[in-house]
Amino acid sequence: MKNNQFLFLLVLTYFALGFVNIHFAILGLICMILPFILLFRNRKKTWCQGYCPRASLLSTTGKLTSKLSLKTPAFFIQGKIKWIMLIYFGISLTFITMTTIRVGLGFSPALEYLRFLIVIPLPFEMPQLITFERLPAWLTHLSYRFYSMMMTTTFIGVILSLVYKPRTWCTICPISTISGEYIKYTR
Ligand code: SF4
């Protein structure tokens, strides 16, 4: 099965919606839950092979430099980078969960700005075209953190797609790594 070439529009819509209202960032959870539902049902990477909007985006951006692109280095495919990325993913999710709980319990204020790679704050405020009244602070915090994680991984993926083969990110994508291990151990 081949990824639909226009699925990348969903990624662009997702990031655009963050400027309409940051709480739409929670929709990104769909892209984290659906791959595993399909994996547990089919015991193969159904999401990666046919439905991933990010893969469609990377295939599209990769075309921009296809004549100049370098071969994906072997250490991406066989080395430790995918495990480093998985650890980053785990730390990110732990950080998001713990800080959201702290905000929910009133121990700390919501961080209402974006961060790159968990710790680097971006020096601008996101415009919000519409506001939702009376949403809990923890939900706002969770939304900014989730958007930040999606932005970071998408940015890295796009840079890799421009330098190397379009879907180089897929060789180190945490969802692919977890799926691969699941398939290996349930054979
Ligand atoms: S490896 Fe990651 S980015 Fe690539 S298709 Fe699968 S989920 Fe999407």
UniProtKB/TrEMBL annotation:
The protein's name: 4Fe-4S binding protein
The organism's place on the tree of life at top rank: Bacteria
Lineage: Bacteria, Bacillati, Bacillota, Clostridia, Eubacteriales
Organism the protein comes from: Acetobacterium wieringae
Keyword set, alphabetical order: Membrane, Transmembrane, Transmembrane helix
Transmembrane segments: 6-39, 83-101, 144-164
